[in-house]
Amino acid sequence: MLSSFRRGFYDCLNARADALFELTDALGCAGAPVTDLARLSLEIEHHRGHGALYDGLNCGAVDTGRLRSLVCAGPLPKVLGPDGRERIVLAVDVSNWLRPDAATSPERSFCHTYARGRGQAQMIPGWPYSFVAALESGASSWTALLDVERIGPGDDATAITAAQLRAVIDGLTRAGHHRAGDPEALIVLDAG
Question: Where is the Transposase IS701-like DDE domain positioned along the sequence (predicted)?
Answer without folding.
Answer: 9-192
